[in-house]
Amino acid sequence: MTDQRQALQAALDSEYAAVYSYGVIAAYANADRARLVAEFSAAHRARRDATIELFETGGTEPEAPAPAYTPPFPVDDPIPAANLAVVVESDCAAAWYGVVERATEEAVRSAAIDALTEAALRRAHWQAILGTNPVTTTFPGRASA
Predict the structure, then answer these.
(1) For the DUF4439 domain, which residue ranges apply (predicted)?
(2) What is the spatial distance between Cα 124 and Cα 130, in angstroms, rounded to a whole number?
């Protein structure tokens, strides 16, 4: 498996987890956030589908998603739901950053840059909702040095 394909599979895995996690987030998010949660969930489904298409265009099949994903902490009200959204978007940004670094094809790199940017913007939105300051980092997706 090439470095690009490994990174792309890791990004797809993060999108699978995001789609699943946004179901949990939707169950506990503040009712005022229902439209936002639906929008962000749809964005992850679209990114998942587009990533699967990248595999198929390259002549390979992606690995199947896990049957379920366990949140890193209990989610039982709106604040943990918003914190889970931050974790999900951070994980997606990190995975897509990895694709940007390892992509050998222009179409894959372009898709990864778009996905990284979208995840960073969604993360910043959730951080603002939680009152975190600053709402973003210098290089979203990059591991701290």
Answers:
(1) 7-143
(2) 10
